[in-house]
Amino acid sequence: MELFWTCLLTIAVAVAGGFLFTKIKAPAPFMVGSMFAVAALSVCTGLAYFPDALRPVTQSVAGSFIALSIQPENVKELRSVIKPYFVMVPGMLIINILLGLSMYYFCGMDISTALFSSVPGGIMDISLICADMGANTSQVAIMQTARLLFVMLLFPPMLKTLANRTLKKQQAEGQAAAQDAPASQPDAVAEDIPVEKYAALTRRQQVLYTFITLAIGGVGGFIGYKLAIPAGTMTFSLLFAAAFNLITRRAYMPVFVRQAAQVGSGALIGAGLTLADILAMRTIIVPAIILIFGYVIMNLGLGYIIYKAKMLDLTTALFATTPAGASDMALIADELGASGPKVSVLHIARIITVVALFPSVIALVIGAVT
Questions:
Q1: Is residue 130 over pLDDT 90?
Q2: In angstroms, rounded to a whole number, what is the distance separating the alpha carbons of residues 126 and 118?
Q3: Can you tell me the distance from the alpha carbon of 83 to that of 320, in angstroms, rounded to the nearest whole number?
C-alpha cells in the first residue's frame, strides 16, 4: 500500500512539473518538466517511485500516437529515411569509437568501459551487453544516465532554436524560393495528425476510436515486448496502430493522451535518478564533458549533413540524430514540428543497429588497442 501512495505522489509531482514547464513555455514541457520534477523528488526525498512495469504501456501509447501521423498518402515518403539511415549510423559508430578512445587515453578509463559509455543506445540494453565484455557496468550506467539527462534537458531547446532560425532565414529569402525547394522545408505540418478529419466526430465516437486505437496498439506492444527485441514494444504498437489507421482511417487519440505518455516517460526517467547517482557523477565529470561535447558535435554535424543533402527537413534531421530513446525523441519531435514517424523509424533502426552491430565492432577495437 505504501508503494501505491508513493507512486501516486510521484505521478502528482510529474504532472505538476509538466504544467509548470508549460507555463514557462519550455520545449516538450510535459516530458522534460515531469522528468525534472520527479528527479528532484527522488534526489531530495528518495520517495519517487514509478513502476518499471508501466514502461511498456508508455511505449505502446507513444507508438500508437505516432501511428496516427502515418496516412496512406505519405507512407511512400517513409522511404526517404533509407538514405539518412546510411549517413546517420556509420557516423554515430565512428564518433562512438573516437569518443571512447578519447576517454580511454585522456581520462584513464579502461577501453571497454570507455567505448560502451559512449554507445548511443538504451541504458538497460548497453549495461547488459557491456557486462559480458568486461566493462565496468556501474560506470557505464552512470555515463549513460548522464548522457540521457543532458540530452533531454539540453537538446530540445537547442534544436528548436536552431530549426527556428533556419526557418526564419528561409522565409526571409521569399515564399517563392521556399516553394521551389519543398524537400528542404519542414514537412511535419503535412504529416501531422489531420485534426480536421476528426472535427465531425461525436464525443462517443472519439472515446470509441481512442479505445480501439489504444487496444490495437497495446496488442502490438505486448507482442513486441514478449519478443524481447530492441525497441520492440514501441515498434509493434506503431505497426499495429498504423495498419489499423491505414485500413480504416479511424485511428484516433486526443492530445492529452500524448501528454500523459510524456509524463509517464519523464517520471520513469526521473524516478530512476538517486542521490547516489548524482554523487557518483563527480567522478566522471571530465569523461561526461567529453561525451556531451562529442554528442553535440555528432548531432549537429550529422543533422546538417542530412539536411544539406536534402534528405530530410532540418528539424526532423536534428531530432533523428539525437542520441536518446526512440519514444522520448519521437514524442518531443512531434510536438516541436518535426516528422514523428520519420524520427521514430530512424531511432528504432538506430537502436536495433546499435545492439546488433556496435558490440562486435567494439570488440574488434578493444582487440586492436590491447
A1: no
A2: 10
A3: 13
Q: What is the pLDDT of residue 122?
A: 65
Closest CA to 249 of 197, 180, 196: 197
Mean pLDDT along residues 327-351: 76
Nearest to 135 by CA among 299, 285, 295, 358: 358
Across 297-308, average pLDDT:
92
Task: Please give the share of the chain, as a percent, with pLDDT higher than 70.
Answer: 82
What is the arithmetic mean of pLDDT over 161-167? Answer: 75
> Can you give the three-state secondary structure of the chain, one letter per residue?
CHHHHHHHHHHHHHHHHHHHHHHCCCCCHHHHHHHHHHHHHHHHHCCCCCCHHHHHHHHHHHHHHHHCCCCHHHCHHHHHHHHHHHHHHHHHHHHHHHHHHHHHHHHCCCHHHHHHHCCCCCHHHHHHHHHCCCCCHHHHHHHHHHHHHHHHHHHHHHHHHHHHHHHHHHHHCCHHHHHHCHHHCCCHHHHCCCHHHHCCCCHHHHHHHHHHHHHHHHHHHHHHHHHCCCCHHHHHHHHHHHHHHHHHCCCCCCHHHHHHHHHHHHHHHHHCCCHHHHHHHHHHHHHHHHHHHHHHHHHHHHHHHHHHCCCCCHHHHHHHCCCCCHHHHHHHHHHCCCCHHHHHHHHHHHHHHHHHHHHHHHHHHHHHHC
With respect to residue 295, please indicate whether it lies within any of the assigned structural domains: yes
| Cα angle: 324, vertex 162, 67; to 5 degrees | 45
- In a domain, residue 117? The reply is yes
What's the domain count of the chain? 1
What is the pLDDT at residue 195? 46
Q: What tens digit of pLDDT does each residue of 5-32 get?
A: 888 999 999 999 999 988 887 766 887 7
Per the structure, the complete domain to which residue 101 belongs is given by: 53-257+283-369
| pLDDT for the residue 269 | 77
Give domain status of residue 20, yes or no. Answer: no
In a domain, 216, yes or no: yes
